[in-house]
Amino acid sequence: MTKTARTYLDWNATAPLLPAARDAFVAALDMVGNPSSVHGEGRALRMLVEAARRDVAALVNTAPAHVIFTSGATEAANLALTPDYRMGRTPLAIGRLYVCEIEHPAIREGGRFAREAVTSIPVTSAGVVDLEALEALLQGHDKATGLPMVAVMLANNETGIVQPVEAVAAIVHRHGGLFVVDAVQAAGRMPIDIEALDADFLIISSHKLGGPKGAGALVSRGEVLMPLPLIRGGGQEKGHRSGTENPAAIAGFAAAARSAAADMAERSARIGALRDALETGMRAVAGDVIIHGEQVERLANTSFFSLPGLKSETGQIAFDLEGIALSAGSACSSGKVGQSHVLTAMGFDAALGGLRLSLGPSSTAADVECFLAAFARVASRRRVTGNAA
Ligand code: PLP
């Protein structure tokens, strides 16, 4: 097989920009005006932003008025995770934030809560939120401090494991709490309905869907229960997020949301078949490969594996030299590979670490072949006995 181009298997870090998202982005960049201006130019941009709001709302089955555009999921998380809420005009205090151990740092850092007001919810060894532990935590919650808030992701960015969000919602709401769901990795990869999930807020990000980086949204269930704004100023986004909107990024985000909503089931089945071929192929080469989360429901595009004798950092570099872009556990912004907090939470030997393969709509059988050829070479060089390399 002769394939010289690189093989991109890191869609959970960021998806390649879709042509439709690029076109929408560029077209909006060329539009003059400010969406808040009342003249024709401004009104044209306002129409574009509002059309985009409808597309993003449709992706999670809610009303456009429930979508607040932000600069990305991290900002949306910092907007939602705050002790200060309002129910209409009445202030509502949130006393404590409970976050699942395997959350992305955007959530795990606790947003605007003081560190002492953030409690971790453990996961089982299968990588699924421990519902009994959550129940016990909420039973012990001191309501005198304010209501409890719980944040649990819909699908994990490292393992792809889908969390039992409806069951979490039932527990949270029985205890009178607020429920925030990070749907960043799930959006566009599985159907999402904010009502069916019974979430109070959802967080989504454009660049995981094939839209441009720098756009995201906080989606609310209604318009009455809302967090105090993180960014104050000119009152854009109905006062929930001030600052001139970024119409180009928002238009690209909407184009990606439209594309993700189309043929989701067929696309997911095709990507799942490629992922399964990757895993079968790895097993054929190295029978001791460990695939995390394969016994529970996972996103069809993700495979997180550990190979005894191969440290994740070494593996990531080896695959990069082979022309394969994949991810090792959680990479921090410095590019340094940290230990996977997800594997640690699952009770796995995190020192060995894991390597994440993630695919998307334009992944091909040739990508699978390229990866498996590289995998055979990398696996043959590892130290199979003794300490991990
Ligand atoms: N949540 C999850 C699960 C993620 O995977 C990411 C990005 O990696 C984020 C939040 C943060 O998203 P953004 O890059 O839009 O701030």
Key words describing this protein structure:
single chain; 389 residues; alpha/beta; 9-stranded mixed β-sheet; 4-stranded antiparallel β-sheet; 12 helices; globular; binds pyridoxal-5'-phosphate
Secondary structure: elements and pairs:
Layout: E1 7-8, H1 19-29, H2 40-59, E2 67-70, H3 73-80, E3 84-87, E4 90-100, H4 105-108, E5 118-121, H5 131-139, E6 147-151, H6 165-174, E7 178-182, H7 194-197, E8 201-205, E9 216-220, E10 225-227, H8 247-261, H9 264-285, E11 290-291, E12 302-306, H10 312-321, E13 324-325, E14 327-328, H11 341-345, E15 355-358, H12 365-381
Parallel strand pairs: 1-13, 4-5, 4-6, 6-7, 7-8
Antiparallel strand pairs: 2-9, 3-4, 3-10, 8-9, 11-12, 12-15, 14-15
Helix pairs in contact: 1-8, 2-8, 5-6, 9-12
